[in-house]
Each structure stands twice: as structure tokens, then as C-alpha cells.
Amino acid sequence: MTRASVGLLAMSVPFPVQAQSSPEQEWSKRETYVLEQICAQCHVRPGIGVPLMGDEAEWGPRRAAGFERLLTNTVEGYLGMPPLGTCSFCTEEELRRLVAILSGMPDDEGR
Amino acid sequence: MRSATRRELLIAILGSATASLFAGCRRTELGPPPEVLPAFSPGQDLPWRNWAGNQGCRPSRRDAPIDEQALADLLGRETGKVRPVGAGHSFSALVPSDDTLVACDLMNGVSSFDSERLEAEVWAGTRLHALGPALEARGQAMPNLPDIDYQTLGGAIATSTHGTGRDFGSLSSYVTALALVTPSGEIIECSRAQNSEIFDAARCSLGSLGVVSRMTLRNRTPFDLTESVSFQGLEEALGDVEDRRERHRHFELYVFPHLDAAMNIAIDEGRDDGASTGGAEFSIQEMRDVYRMVGGVPWIGGRLYEELILSAADLSTQVRSGRSYQILANPRIERFREMEYTIPADAGPSCVREILDTIRSQAIPVVYPIEYRYVRGDDVWLSMFNQRDGCSISIHQFADEDHRAYFDVIEKIFWKYEGRPHWGKLHSLSALELEALYPRWKEFAEVRESLDPTGRFLNEHLQAIFGTNPRTVQGTSL
User: What ipTM, to 2 d.p.?
Assistant: First the structure.
């Protein structure tokens, strides 16, 4: 899986994760690991000044910049966001899927 | 700070009152020259950058083996340069390579444990923040942790990453056995009783011997801690520092450039059920804003900055309790650059006084607090604490400001105190100086050369560190 375990993660935060995952998309073990063990370390941790998964007030203005800008900021780092989200092995494809689920914004490329 | 309203009002008043004095002083003009780091271009090889954003490369291959044999096969197959990478939290250029980066992240978790010996074998890719709950589920806990827990265990061990506490060594000193996958793809089991020289070298190797894939940690039973954060005047705090080192399980001090104030963080075993759960709020950004507005005002800027900060700050003692791994490590969202040297423990107060005097006398524009910690000596060959108890002093600068002039001045003070640089943080030393600081340097070099005779695991930074390349390379590390 692993939409199931991503869904379990999502139950801990007010975010419609399933809505971001089309039926044909399967989350790889790598992606699930990165989401749960790396992204979640900040993005489901309230009170540290990081936009939380599912927080529309926080993500709305960021989405306005466009998906590619969010992706570039993720890869290169931006303000408090560390480059690659500290995932040194993530591929561009994996980062696209992770950015989409965290921001609630579909990838421009339709991935 | 006493209240957000008062704080915001203070900032707003200061902003309007002083904006005209510093109308041309925008962040971009204060920042360092753009660093030449590879940029992201969709569809092309992804660049790698470290957490702080001051190191980067564009590796032609990035791999994350799913198990130890896959790692061994990969190293045996590769013919070019290879560098191991963890969470990328090192400020120094340990990782960059345009050949192959190898991450152990997919080799994570506790592989086995011994409840009688209170030891656990852990895969190198395990993030420190995941290790606390994983060990607790097995009736164990690490005795100490660094104050940031984003790192992988493998990366932390490779750089002798440490916390604070007179009786506690770095994480490397708690490793009782390890498996090293050598550059040729051989898996070597090491401990005090087996391949002991490789064991002494690999417990802190800068990732130069191959890849440490798993290690056994000496732990203890799970426990609670209570942290107390209190403020004192600077001289009073420095006068008490050695007494506090003796009295508390963990003690660290933050001293503030241009302020007559210090923050004591004392952590002791036990739980205070009446303690606040919030902990101390430390607003470095507000200090930065105030300093930018008034710090440069001729004659009175320094005094004004001090009065404004101290009058608005909440200096009451704050207490929090929790499981050990919840109290010892803290989130760090503000990105910064850091230099840290470890000097002999007893020289700590003198050294930090000299640093503060230098900052004031040279009017160095820095607000980031200086961190001051104690770490027990160990027998790890390249540990900064090898054969001596240490006082680790760290200086920081915001990631979007130029740290170089500040770090350059302070680094020379560290050298006067026989300081050893933290391997994962910024410094400008290379082989000649480092060899004189480490009693077992030669032995380490022999082990390294035997395992990697062609230097496949050495990038430019490590070539300078180990003296296999001209010293001219070292300047790039700052």
C-alpha cells in the first residue's frame, strides 16, 4: 500500500487525503515512509509554525503561487522548509506526489 | 515575552520610529553573495542541498538500498566516487559529490534488542525522532540525545553528534558494535572484541570508510525528564556555570551577544506533574527585528537594543516534563549556519567570555545566541571528545545573512583554546592542523587507507580534511 496507511495518517489531521489520491495511484513503500517519517515530522506537528496538512488557511495562499513553485521550493528549500524536505533520495516524481498530498493541490502535470 | 500584544506594539513603534534611519538596509543587502548551488529544473537530475542551504551538488546517481546486501552489492558495483547521505543536516561539505549519493533511509528501525543487556541494534537510516518511541516499545531508551532529532542515526554517529551533560558522551560513545559495508562491498562486523581498530575508527568516520549500515546502542530503561529554563545576568550565569554542570543531569547555557543576559537550561531525571507543558518560547526572530532597527544607531544602539529586549522579555522560569526523548530534542524551523568547536571543559567560561568581548569590541552585528554545552570524554578516535572532557561552544547566524566574517573572527579564538571543530559544522581546518588535535589521527588514517586505498569515499572536503589533496580546497568549507 498503501493508500490505506496514508489514510490512517490522514485520520490524525483534518485533511481529505483520499481525495488527493486517484484510484489508480498506489503509494509505494518509499513514499509512505517519507510521508509518515519525514514530512509528518513537521507538517502534522502543531505549534511549530509549519503549515499543517489540511490547514486550508495556511495552504490557500501558498497554492496561489502554483504547483511548480511549491515543488521548486521543496527541492531547493525556502524559508524554514529544508531542501528536499531532508529526503535525500526522493525522486522528482515522488516529490510531486508528496507536495500534492501535503498542499492539497493537484500536480500541474496531472500526476 | 509577556504578551503578544505588547510585543507587537513594541515592534510596530520601533519600526516607525527607526525606519528612516535604516531605509536602505534591506535583507537582501545584508545577505551573503548568492551561493552557486545547482538549481532545480523539472525533468533533469535533481540537485541535492543540505538542510541549511549552504552545500549542494548534482549527483548523477542517488540510491537508497532496501537492505544491507543491496547496499553491499551497490558499493561493490560502483567504480566512481560515493558519498553517504543522511538527513543532510551537516553544515560542512561532507556530502557533496557529483557521482553517487547513497542514503540508508530505507534501512530503518530496530533490528534486534537484548532486554538483559539493555542494548538494541538499530539500522543506520533510522531518524533519531523515530528512535525514542521505537526503543520505549522495547523497554529501552537512549541515555542522551542531541537537541535536534531530525538526523539519521548513521549521520549522527559519523560526526560524533552529541547532546549535553557532564556524564554523557556523544552518540558515538554509546555504540558497542556496528556493521561496516566497505567501499569494496564487504560487510565487516566490528566491536571492542572483533575488528577493534575498525570499530574505533568507524564510530566516528565522517563517512569515509564506507557505509555503517547498523549499530548496537547501549541504552537504559525508559525515563522521564523535567526541564527548567531560567534567566540570569551574564556574569552571574558564567560564575555559576561549573556548579550547574555538576548539579544537573544535563545543563546548557545560551548567552546572548550584546545583552547582559543568559538562559540556563537544566534537565534532571523525574517528572513534575504540575509543570507547564508549553516550555520556553524563544523568539530569535523578534530579537533580530529589534537589532536591525536599533542596533546600528550611533552611540546608543547597543544599549537601546538591550533595554528593549530585556524590558519586553518574559524572564520567569519555565518548566516542562515528559519522556526523555520528548524533552531532550526540540524542533528547529529557523534555518541557520553554525560553527562549533569543543575545547577542554575547564576552559569553557574563559573562552565564551573572550567570544562575547570580541563581539562587543568589534561591534559584530549578531543576535543569535551562543550555545554552551558539556560532553564527557571518550575513546572514539576522531570524536571531538577523544581523551578529554569537552565544552562545546556553538555560534550561529541566520541562513539568509553572511556568516563568514563573524565565524572567521571567532574561529581564531577557538584555536587559542585547542578547539576541535564539530565535523558536521563549519570550520576551516585541514589535515595539518587536525592531526595535531587528535592523538589517534595516524591510526585512523591507516585504517581509512586500508579500506579505501583509492579514495572513492573522499570528496573535495574530505580530501582536504585527510590531507590527500592540496590545502587550497579547504576554503570552500566555509
Answer: 0.84
